[in-house]
Amino acid sequence: MWEATKLTLKLAFITTLLLLILGTPIAWWLARSKSFIKEIIGTLVALPLVLPPTVLGLYLLLLLSPQGNFGSWLSEVFGSPFPFSFKGLVVGSVIYSLPFVVQPIRNSFEAIGEHSLEAAASLRASPFDVFFSVALPLARPGILTGSVLGFAHTVGEFGVILMLGGNIPGETKVLSVAIYDYVESLQWQKAHALAGGMIGFSFCVILATTLIERHWRKKSNE
Amino acid sequence: MSRFEAEFKGRLGNFEVDVLFTLPQTGITALFGPSGSGKTTILRCIAGLTRLEGNLVVDGKSWQNSSNFLPTHRRPIGYVFQDANLFPHLSVRGNLEYGLRRIQNTQKTKLWEEITEMLGLEALLDREPSKLSGGEKQRVAIARALLSAPEILLMDEPLSALDPFSRMEILPYLQRLHLDLKVPIVYVSHDLHEVEQLADWMILLKKGHVIAQGSISELLANPQLPLARLPEAAVILEGAMQNFDSKYCLSKISVNGGSLTLSQNLGVVGSRHRLRILAREVGIAKSWQDGDASFLNVLSAIIVDIQPFGEQQATVFLCLGKQANGDVLLARITRKSCDVLQLKEGDEVKALIKSVGLVGVPTVDQAG
């Protein structure tokens, strides 16, 4: 039980970190670009919102499989195949939770508008400088929401993990899979402990986010 | 040769801009015109925030030509936006330091002290922008722009978003800038009274084209331009303090072609002042004996032009002095008076001035 919890938290932390590094520039580009391709990229990013996790899991499994060209290249570079490993879970989680991180950050970037960015440029800040000194701090609420949603969504992930990772204790057996396992083997008490814990955890996370956001909003409206 | 030459040409949506103008070395140049005349667009082109075809040469350096376009952050400008536009995530101090930290300047401490003192910001430094009044925000915005040590200051209607009280609060600071600042200021406005109080030069715009540019006194009194046809038409005269009558507290100011009396103490003899005379405050008499009426300001003038103004009125252009070589005054009188007095061009008349307003601050040398 403890092993599954630890694994889940590790997966969620790594996924959220990668999502912030990857998702923030994507969100910035989506918020600022005027090209038509951005709508196509935006749609691709949003796809995991509507696709059944099994569909995503299936294609990721095929893509990452060492039998394929890309998958065999990947496993050569990283030393071992991706499917049914922790690495594979990270890849799956990043793709599956991408829209939950990109969308709130993109909204925050769009809400900044031209004005502050133009003021920064008129004060000698290069575009790169403007991004770090003005855009990122002003997008703080979106970055917080995005991180929390990405983290929580990864913790609650089930379908993609089962398809891509299977059920290997210590490697791919995360909480959601463990609960499913306990129910299958009729260990109700253990299932309850984990499931109840997840409800409590989710409640606390969302409440905390709301409170922090409210605090920030109040501070900037004062 | 002017150190600043600009030419912009192009379309934004279905708005066409085609302008060519120069700016003097110092002083405030107003970009003036009705809404939709392209004032803000041109200011943004100077800043590089909007890109149109064109040429822009400042101090011998090209900021823009057919092959080159210097991005905004590499132009040594200061830009004051209509709505202050402070960074909400930084304190007043953080906002002020933003530009200061990004310039190469060995005298940053001195600059900081000068500017914060000039705009009276010492007490506001640790506040959040959201806790400032409109006028205070705009003062911070002006200081923030100046702290990036600009070679030209661009101001986009900095008073238009403010209530009348905040405007009154800011104007003295702007007038001080005018005196203390060694860099040219381009000031966008559609408020003639504001321009009269601040500007030395004016670029008059209409539908994306420059219809006149020159000193504000010349443009206001030019019969060819629409300025003299505005209801609030006025002229600006520059004059020097001649003497002070302490018994009645009256100052005598000499202008080109005459002298004017103001009922206030304007300081030392020789100091320069800027006076504003509204067309509707000026009357005309064919003849005049001293001591006939209560007017303090009665000046000899020659009629140089008469234009109808609406159904009932006319605008009379008067040149001060008996030789018609002095400053120009405008008089807004009824058409009936015009006919009764049989006024025509070349007539020698007396201009009766009901009130003379003092605007701005003692002026500096304006050789551009």
Task: Give an overview in words.
The complex is a heterodimer of chains A (222) and B (368). Chain A has helices spanning 2-32, 37-46, 53-64, 69-78, 86-122, 127-138, 140-155, 159-164, 175-184, 188-221. By secondary structure, chain A is mainly alpha-helical. Chain A has a single domain, classed as MetI-like fold. In chain A, helix 9 packs antiparallel against helix 10 (188-221). The radius of gyration of chain A is 20 Å and the shape is globular. Chain B has 368 residues and is α+β, with helices and mostly antiparallel strands. Chain B has two domains: 4-229, 3-Layer(aba) Sandwich (Rossmann fold); 234-359, Beta Barrel (OB fold (Dihydrolipoamide Acetyltransferase, E2P)), CATH 2.40.50.100. In chain B, strands 6-7-8-3-9-10 form a six-stranded mixed β-sheet, sandwiched between helices. In chain B, strands 13-12-11-14-20 form a five-stranded antiparallel β-sheet. Chain B has a five-stranded antiparallel β-sheet with strand order 15-19-16-17-18. In chain B, strand 12 and strand 13 (258-262) form a beta hairpin. The interface between A and B is medium-sized, with 23 and 26 residues.
Average pLDDT of chain A, rounded to a whole number, is: 91
Structural class, judged by helices and strands of chain A? mainly alpha
- Please outline the major beta sheet of chain A: none
Continuous helix count of chain A: 10
- Tally of separate domains of chain B: 2
The N- and C-terminal alpha carbons of chain A lie at a distance of: 47 Å
**Beta-strand residue percentage of chain B:** 35-45%
Shape estimate of chain B: globular
User: Helix proportion of residues of chain B, in percent?
Assistant: 10-25%
Main interface by residue count: A-B, 23 and 26 residues
N-to-C order of helices and strands of chain B: EEEHEEEHHHEHEHEEHEEEEEEEEHEE
